[in-house]
Amino acid sequence: MEVSFIAPCKQSHHLPFLNFPSSKQPFKPIHRKEMEKVVFVMGATGTGKSRLSIDLANCFPAEIINSDKMQVYKGLDIVTNKVTIEEQQGIPHHLLGTIDPDADYTSDDFHRHASLAVESIVDRNRLPIIVGGSNSFIEALVLRDKYECCFLWVDVSLPVLNSFVSDRVNRMVGAGLADEVRGIFKPDADYSRGIRRAIGVPEMDRFLRAEMNGEDAETRERLLGMAIDKIKVNTRGLARRQLSKIHRLIDLLGWYVHRLDATDVFLKSGGDADVVWEKQVLAPSAAIVRSFLQQRSEDANRTISMNAITTPGPSLIISPTIMATSVTAATR
Fold first, then answer.
1. Domain locations in the chain as residue ranges
2. Would you tell me the Gene Ontology cellular component terms (predicted)?
3. Which of 101, 142, 152, 322 has the highest CB neighbour number within 10 Å of its CB?
4. Sign of the C-alpha dihedral computed for residues 322, 328, 331 and 332 taken in this order
5. Is 136 a residue whose pLDDT tops 80?
6. Is the pLDDT of residue 270 over 80?
7. Which CATH number applies to 163-234?
8. Which class is 16-158+254-330 in CATH?
């Protein structure tokens, strides 16, 4: 399945209250009058989290905060699968490609920066959507700050997802993964810090050393193939670990999570996949978020269901006046 970023609610961007201030402006902490409402989009790598967050931000006045611990770093856009400027569709993205690649960015750092981003977004009467597969970052933010939270979990059956992520690695290699990693290669690099921890970097070490040492073409080709296979194995392992952590958040911490099964999307292609995405993932997600925004704060978490969402919710045609009012009221 090729991931496309469709925007069935794109008309919301024509509203006058949706003129985006620059996301590069410094954040200024604000005094909290009430608990802010925040939407979290969770899921294993490759399931379509970024697509859903962008589609939702086209349905609601919203901005996106990245919570992927590798995508926070500058550089290696192919390796870390950052959404492109085109795919962002004009939606402001925070903490995406902003951190020095050699820095050791921790959960504490994310908590501090994301909290300020949430406050900045809410201060503009917009909805914060936090998206990413680094559940430790999400957990650090939720457990330390008092937000009214709506959790959306994009799920895909592991056999289907494993096949997809392997194909995605092949596409990444075709897009220039090797050249990208070659650009930051250092023989004495520390693969336990910064962006060099990203899957796709340490796996290329032996191949790049062979290049540097002038090994023959056959050896280099063999080592490159081994590196690509290792990247696939490690990416599949990452997906399993991310799923385990999501189940932990549900089972041990008692988080209320909406599960959106996107498996059928990955079994289709082209326009058929888009139709299934809108029906089985985007429509119910938009309905859940709309209900979340319209609820009173004290009732919000009590009514969130942990069951799988399999049917589309109400129509995605949302009155601009009603939605503007709902987001303004709910995020303050």
1. 16-158+254-330, 163-234
2. mitochondrion
3. 152
4. negative
5. yes
6. yes
7. 1.10.287.890
8. alpha beta
